[in-house]
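Design request, tokens follow.
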């Protein structure tokens, strides 16, 4: 799994947990619904840390909590430069 896939999976987890739609997350973060969909569909190769921070804040979790878990362990990520 790459980092975008891991972030997408985490966003989907919190959307389900909170019962939110992409549009609700968009309103909370001021990221366009299309921008969020691009992340969710793994159609981007990059994501800014500030974007992840905005999303974590919207879900009312810290950045470290958002990025905590097996999916984000270095050995579980395919990191290609």
């Amino acid at each position: 799994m790459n980092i975008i896939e891991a972030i997408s999976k985490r966003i989907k987890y919190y959307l389900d947990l909170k019962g939110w739609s992409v549009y609700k997350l968009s309103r909370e973060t001021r990221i366009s619904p299309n921008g969020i969909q691009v992340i969710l569909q793994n159609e981007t190769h990059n994501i800014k840390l500030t974007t992840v921070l905005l999303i974590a804040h919207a879900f009312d979790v810290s950045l470290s909590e958002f990025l905590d878990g097996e999916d984000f362990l270095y050995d579980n990520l395919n990191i290609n430069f």
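Comment from the thread starter after seeing the answer: thanks! Residues 3-70 form a domain with the 434 Repressor (Amino-terminal Domain) fold (CATH 1.10.260.40).
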